[in-house]
Amino acid sequence: MDIKQIQELIKFVSRSGVNEVSIEQKEFKITIKTNQPPTYLNAVAPVVQPQVVVTQAALPIIEAKVAAQVTVVDETLNFLTIKSPMIGTFYRSSSQDKAFYVNVGDEVKTGQVVCIIEAMKLFNEIESEVSGRIVKILVDNSSPVEYDQPLFLVEPM
User: Fold this and answer.
1) I need a surface site. Which of 10, 60, 90, 120 has the fewest CB within 10 A?
2) Residue ranges matching CATH 2.40.50.100 in the chain
3) Of 40, 68, 66, nearest in space to 51 by CA
4) Per mean pLDDT, which range of 34-48, 62-76, 110-124 is the poorest?
């Protein structure tokens, strides 16, 4: 289960009125609890290779238990994140025949355009608020993005 799946599960729990959700897999167990009155829901999740990233969330309490042979690694711990400032469609270049603004391994500076987000037929250039080297692009070209969604991981310089 990756961080996006955990975040979606947390959102589901907080919106649905469910008090507690537990998922158990071969080497992974997660329980999400809220302070709401209990409602019970039993579900079976497909077996997925465990990949756990546990962060501190303000609303629900997350309890993650992993078997001893699984190593829990937060690969984003030392990286900065460039996030979407709006809802829209993410584009890596200004048009299909143009080169991408940035690629993995490229160095970016504060104020440099890294992508475009189209919102309501307006194309907004998104500038980096950090300087460093792009280590991961988290969104596919032409994909919808949400407000505050991580777009790039940047290794600070």
Assistant:
1) 120
2) 80-156
3) 66
4) 62-76
Rounded distance between C-alpha atoms, residue 104 and residue 21, angstroms: 37
**Residue 97 and residue 112: Cα distance in Å, rounded?**
20
- CB crowding 35-61: b at 16 or more within 10 Å, else e: eeeeeeeeeeeeeeebebbeeeeeebe
Question: Where do the H-state alpha helices sit in 17-68?
Answer: none
Global pTM exceeds 0.90: no
Place of tokens 């829990």: 72
Contact 143, 137 (CB under 8 A): no
Q: Strand, coil or helix: what is 11?
A: helix
Take residue 114 and report the two structure tokens written for it: 């890294």
Q: What is the pLDDT of residues 8-40, one digit of tens each?
A: 777 776 666 666 777 777 777 777 776 655 545
Rg (CA), the chain: 19
DSSP letters along 24-63, please? EETTEEEEEE-SSPP------PPP----------SSSEEE
Residue 29: left if φ>0, alpha if ψ -120 to 50, beta else—which one?
beta
Quickly count: other Cβ atoms within 10 Å of residue 16's Cβ: 13
Tokens of 54: 């546990």
Query: Hey, what CATH class is 80-156 in?
Result: mainly beta
